[in-house]
Design a protein that fits this description.
There is one protein chain. By secondary structure, this protein is mostly beta strands. It is built from ten helices and 32 strands.
């Protein structure tokens, strides 16, 4: 009996002195997280902080400490552990990259967004362009650390397989995180996946942003953003960001010195809904600030034009100034039931937009030459909108305007560079368009001489009570036109000038005329 007691005492002492399944903890401050490595399996275990201590090993692999420090930094390598007996390398990375900034935390994203992220790992996706051939990538939701893609892949350079591997990949805390078991000089086996799981199952995140973490910007995925143009006095910003983040929108009107502030806090899933109210018709600038503790704030700026009779139009595809193809598509979006006309070198084609408000025209550009294109948008109850484009195909030289109906004519090659921003955008962003060649069609409402210059007031549209959207066109000689003639002006924007209209001080865009063409002579019905 005494011998038996002694035997068990010896066994107990051995168990106390040599723990079963002893593990080595590795802290990953950038994530921040910790993992546990099985004792005696990996050697050496490299981190960004101990590369100098492992100089001999790095030399044996044909590198220098400086080179590896640079690689660890650029690739976001936080851990590199070697299991030479099984020809395996365990690598953990946390990289502040484009995906990290875009997705922020994959567990806060919608199923559609997670599916979009997974599609990055298709055979023709950006991951494949880096040399990875992904054989499978499926989501798994782990109870304590959230969703990761379960991946099997091979990595190639110049067509040659460098290594194969199993990996777990996701986006956490604004970083692309990958726990990767790389296998060299042999095929993959189930044991490699098991070895990866032994480490991955110990992964534990210790906070949102820890000591030593890279500066991480907060992310913002907008499902409903601010409109560029609207005929409604209110709209709602919606989307997803970091849970608990504060969103503040500061809205400033060009006619008021007092900004309006709107704020909301994202819910526990990161969803937010922020209603915005516009006080009156006009042009607004809105700044959106998104802030969360421990993350760099995000700032976004929006330009908004509000008019009760404004017909919103967004052109997404248009003719390039220099055309090289035989066919182009012009498309965009407006409201449903809008009559859209395309006038191309005098030929008129019209369509009515469907329920989604989209429109599209195919343009045959096989012939070389100059293409003058105009889009006109009309709907009952709204002001008509007009957009003009000029494009060139081939080596055709663009002739000057007809001298019988043009003043200060310049070659159309220069006019092909002209742009036609909306009047409200032009006024709001005069500093951006300053010095650029612009073109507009409008009606002359006044001609006056000042200090040797001739200044034409040109209204871009007619209203029920008169004219609206006035620009000033400056010429150095008297024009051959009269009031209410319809003209096309090409001119260089020289900022915003001032003038008087019905005793009200106004500001007008000032164009230095390059050419002025008669489009329609005014015929007085009482004459």
């Amino acid at each position: 009996m005494r011998k038996l007691i002694v035997f068990f005492s010896i066994i107990f002492c051995l168990l106390v002195q040599t723990p079963v399944n002893a593990e080595e903890q590795v802290i990953l401050p950038v994530l921040p997280a910790v993992v546990l490595l099985p004792q005696g399996v990996y050697s050496p275990v490299l981190t960004p902080d101990n590369l100098q201590e492992n100089q001999a090993f790095i030399f044996s692999r044909g590198g220098t400490v400086e080179q590896w420090q640079e690689e660890f930094k650029n690739s976001g390598i936080l851990l590199k552990a070697y299991d030479d007996s099984n020809k395996r390398v365990l690598q953990v990375t946390g990289l502040l990259d484009e995906d990290g900034q875009r997705y922020g935390d994959i567990d806060l994203q919608s199923p559609a967004t997670r599916a979009q992220y997974r599609s990055l790992y298709k055979s023709d996706g950006p991951f494949a362009q880096k040399g990875y051939r992904v054989e499978s990538a499926e989501w798994k939701n782990f109870k304590s650390i959230g969703r990761f893609l379960m991946m099997r892949y091979s990595f190639r350079q110049d067509g040659e397989v460098i290594h194969r591997g199993f990996a777990r990949r996701s986006v956490k805390n604004g970083l692309s995180v990958m726990v990767d078991m790389q296998v060299y000089d042999r095929t993959l086996s189930a044991g490699d996946n098991t070895a990866l799981n032994k480490v991955f199952d110990t992964l534990s995140f210790t906070g949102s942003v820890g000591v030593g973490a890279a500066a991480t910007p907060i992310f913002l995925n907008e499902s409903a953003s601010a409109p560029l143009e609207t005929n409604q006095p209110s709209f709602t910003l919606k989307g997803m960001t970091r849970a608990g983040a504060k969103l503040t929108a500061t809205v400033m009107s060009f006619t008021s010195t007092t900004p309006a502030n709107f704020s909301v806090q994202a819910d526990e899933k990161g969803n937010y809904s922020l209603p915005i109210q516009l006080s009156s018709e006009g042009i607004y600038m809105m700044n959106l600030s998104v802030q969360a503790e421990g993350l760099d704030p995000l700032e976004k700026t929006y330009s908004i034009t509000y008019g009760r009779n404004l017909l919103p139009v967004q052109i997404t595809l248009q003719l390039p100034e220099i055309m090289t193809q035989d066919k182009y598509t012009i498309s965009g979006i407006t409201q449903a039931g809008v009559n859209v006309q395309m006038i191309l070198n005098g030929d008129n084609t019209s369509k009515r937009t469907a329920k989604n408000g989209s429109f599209s025209f195919n343009v045959n550009t096989k012939a070389e030459g100059i293409y003058q294109l105009r889009l006109i948008f009309e709907k009952k109850g709204f002001d008509a909108r007009t957009f003009d484009f000029t494009a060139v195909k081939g080596s055709a030289q663009q002739s000057s305007l007809n001298p019988d109906n043009a003043a200060n004519a310049v070659p159309l090659a220069s006019q092909g560079e002209a742009v036609s921003p909306s009047y409200t955008e032009l006024v709001a962003k005069a500093d951006i368009y300053d010095g650029m060649l612009l073109t507009y069609d409008g009606f002359i409402t006044r001609i006056e001489e000042q200090a040797g210059d001739y200044i034409l007031s040109i209204a871009l549209r007619k209203t029920a009570t008169g004219f609206a959207d006035t620009i000033k066109a400056v010429m150095d000689k008297a024009p051959d036109f009269t009031a209410q003639d319809k003209v096309r002006v090409y001119g260089l924007l020289e900022g915003i000038g001032s003038g008087e209209d019905a005793s009200i001080d106004l500001s007008y865009p000032m164009l230095r005329v390059q050419s002025l063409t008669l489009l329609e002579k005014f015929m007085d019905p009482d004459a």
